Amino acid sequence: RQRQRPRDGGILQWRFIWESERALQRSIQGTKTKERTKQMLSKQAVKIAQRAEEHEPFINKVTHLLGVLGFGAFCFILGARPQDIRYVYCFFYLTFVPLRWIYYRFKKWHYYLLDFCYYANTIFIIMLLGFPTNERFFMVCFSFAEGPLAWALIVWRCSLVFSSVDKTVSVFIHLLPGSLGEHPFPLYNYEKGSNPVGLVFFTIWWWDPVFFGAMHPEGTPERASWPYVENQSYLWKWLFFVPLAAYFFWQVLYYLIVEVLRRQRLLRDPEVMTSYRELSKKAKKANNMWWRLSGLLGDQNRLLMFILLQAIFTVATTALTVPIFLSYKLHVVYQILKVSASVWNGGNFLLEVMPRQVILKEKKKSETRDVTEQQHENPLQENSMETPQ
């Protein structure tokens, strides 16, 4: 037995080495397969992009047609069945955001999906599908929708351009939630049994009393009017302080993911875009107010200044949601302002920015054609200059 032990130990050691080598080979083969698949998908994506560029005018026309028809259908549902607007919003978000992730992943823009607007919209979906009768959750979502998200349309100049899927989706991500929740009670007469006049939080809050009527604290009777306007501390708590706490939680989480956990990945590839990179790039190019403000503490602290400026913006816009929450007329004016700003910015893009982009594209195409023609002509000239021996 003592003589067999070394032999058994040698067999076990050999078997361990053999299994380790097999595992290593499988890992190498898996890595190679993954790289080949990635290269193949990348080549296919480039081919699709090239074909799409060749047919860009036609694609833009189709996109514009579908965008206008879709917006018209949305307006029809808004007037005919306002109580169904929340389902339109859920369908839009759950359909277009995954598609946007695929597109952004190819463009190396996927870190944009960690921005606050997607964080807030995900909370909206959870509220609408999971906790539709929780009034406090509703107030937090209302504050997000009519605070930072809505004002981002105006401050960051989001453009409603139906020929651009990317721009249209960006506008709707910021615009639709606020349209989800307006106040039912001023427009609804329970005694007469009239129908609600009844975008997502706008319609819930002002135009959909059936949905909103169930929102009352557990153990209390259903309210005749909601909320209790005289209870200002309750309003400020759930429309201002709690939303700000949720915002700062997102800010810490975003910083940890982008600037700590993924920092080396971003440093290795400068083409990968984040919101901070994009904002600083545009601000530096324009040399505008944001670039000068972000440099108050020096270039090494620009990221900190961007975070501080965004926090100030969030605090200010969140505070404005309280008077909007209490006034139907102010809320209607606010809705008109948001839509008008998006349409105005879209007009500026179509009439000023897009013509310049078309001219630049045509110029690049002509330069590329000239270089290609010269490359074809040079070999012919060299061949003609050669004399037979």
Automatic annotation (TrEMBL):
Give the transmembrane ranges. 62-80, 86-104, 111-131, 137-156, 197-215, 235-258, 303-326
Q: Where is this region: Disordered?
A: 364-389
Give a Pfam family name. DUF2838
- One GO CC annotation: membrane
Membrane topology, from the record? Multi-pass membrane protein
Biased-composition ranges, Polar residues, are 377-389
Query: Which keywords belong to this entry?
Result: Acyltransferase, Lipid biosynthesis, Lipid metabolism, Membrane, Phospholipid biosynthesis, Phospholipid metabolism, Transferase, Transmembrane, Transmembrane helix
GO annotations under biological process? phosphatidylcholine biosynthetic process
Looking at the record's lineage, which domain of life comes first? Eukaryota
Q: Where is the signal peptide?
A: none
List where Basic and acidic residues composition bias occurs: 364-376
The compartments listed are:
Membrane
Q: Give the GO molecular function terms.
A: acyltransferase activity
Family indicated by similarity: Belongs to the GPC1 family.
| Official protein name in the record | Glycerophosphocholine acyltransferase 1
